[in-house]
Amino acid sequence: MNASPIDVQAAFEILRNNDRGGYTVPTHGLYPFQWSWDSAITALGWRHADEARAWEEAEVMFRGQWDNGMLPHILFHKDAETYFPGPDVWGATDGIPSSAISQPAVWATCLRMLYDEAKDRDLAERKMTELLPGLIRYHDWWYRERDRDGTGLVVSFHPWESGMDNSPAWDDALARVPTIDWEYQRRDLGHVDADERPHKTEYDRYLYLVDFYKQNGFDSDAIYRDCPYRVLDIGLIAILHRGTRDLVALCDAFDRKADSDRLRDDMARTEAAIGKLWSDDRRCFLNYDVIADEPIEEVTTATVLPLYAGLANDDQAQEMVDLIREWEGATSFAISSTHPSSSRYEPQRYWRGPVWLHINWLIALGLKDYGYEELADRLRVAARKCVETSGFFEYFDAESGAGCGGDDFSWTAAVAINWLA
Ligand code: GLC
């Protein structure tokens, strides 16, 4: 494979081609709707061509916010035959049809970047004023509904909520979930090779959970009490924490003192609790299986994200930096989603090994915050090599750099514009 410099115009062209009028699909075919964290990251690509269009991405997303503040992970704006499970399976059809779970809360961080660095100040002031109440309600929802006992650690009810769908970290917790007893037709395998996608055994359980929320009428109390999958997802917790920090800064800028005080209390609870997830052995934080009441030993890109959140103390940061240095040395193309020493590592299968550029970007942001500029830059160079070698794919084989999953992918294009170019 020959490397060529990043073609920024081609990246903008991908965003334009994936634009469905106010929102950007992750890629044509495989993902024909609006996904929450894709959309937030994609907005940061848009802003370099068209700031109004970047703000619109958020406006359209927040139109799908639930009354209780939840921001769904998918908004099904239009019907499409190329994706399963669609709106009929989820069954959440009040307002814009949507999924019934959320995704990592990157919105506040992305919108703060958009706001702080905006060239059109009037537009930024206006849009941020409109969006801020929804953002606050979204973060309040996480702390209120997903941490009812005020432990400081929000719980996740679906592997898809992590955004890292089939990470080996979820294997054992998911294996405890019953399987569904009805037939269904997956659509992803019509677009992508089966060896780059999750197995059927996983899908049967993903769908059980989807059905479980619907059977429970999306009642938060019942789901919190009975959901057969309950995980403290360190990626989700870290991304939420960083998002809340950015949200507090926005609240301060907009004189919303009561909101920023409350959110600061939420942050303080997480800071007090996070030590429970640290592992001296693994030299990083770990996910936690709440039902089994034990830490999940897999080292994945999520387990170093507390760097991005500012949740690590200096010693922990140094340990994670050492881990990342080795990790980066062990793969040729940036940090693989699962550590290569894991027996469950597969370099080309979705979240079990491939390199995802937006996650490398988040880790690099964290490294910079802790003063490890040089290592952050090494990640950038390694991530750039993926695009130079293979173009704007969904994810990349950690060993060959070959593009995997969907092509012409929005967040890969956006990260290339915003970080790599
Ligand atoms: C997959 C990914 C998830 C992403 C979605 C759309 O489900 O695991 O992180 O948001 O695709 O790209």
Tag the structure with descriptive keywords.
mainly alpha; globular; 9 strands; binds alpha-D-glucopyranose; 421 residues
Task: Reconstruct the topology from this structure.
Elements: H1 8-18, E1 34-35, H2 36-46, H3 51-62, E2 74-75, H4 87-90, H5 107-116, H6 121-146, H7 171-175, H8 200-215, H9 220-226, E3 231-232, H10 234-253, H11 257-273, E4 278-279, E5 284-285, E6 287-289, E7 294-296, H12 306-309, H13 314-330, H14 357-369, H15 373-390, E8 395-396, E9 403-404, H16 410-420
Helix pairs in contact: 1-16, 2-3, 2-5, 2-16, 3-6, 5-6, 5-10, 6-10, 10-11, 14-15, 15-16
Biggest sheet, strands in spatial order?
A: 3-6-7
Which structural class should the secondary elements be placed in?
mainly alpha
**What hetero molecules are bound to the protein chains?**
alpha-D-glucopyranose
Q: Count of helices?
A: 16
Main sheet makeup: 3 strands, antiparallel
Query: What is the CA–CA distance across the termini?
Result: 20 Å
Report mean pLDDT, rounded to a whole number: 97
Number of strands: 9
Which parts are unreliable, with pLDDT below 50 for 5 consecutive residues or more?
Answer: none
Strand content: under 5%
SSE topology string: HEHHEHHHHHHEHHEEEEHHHHEEH
Rg calculated over all Cα atoms: 20 Å
Helix content: 40-55%
Overall body shape = globular
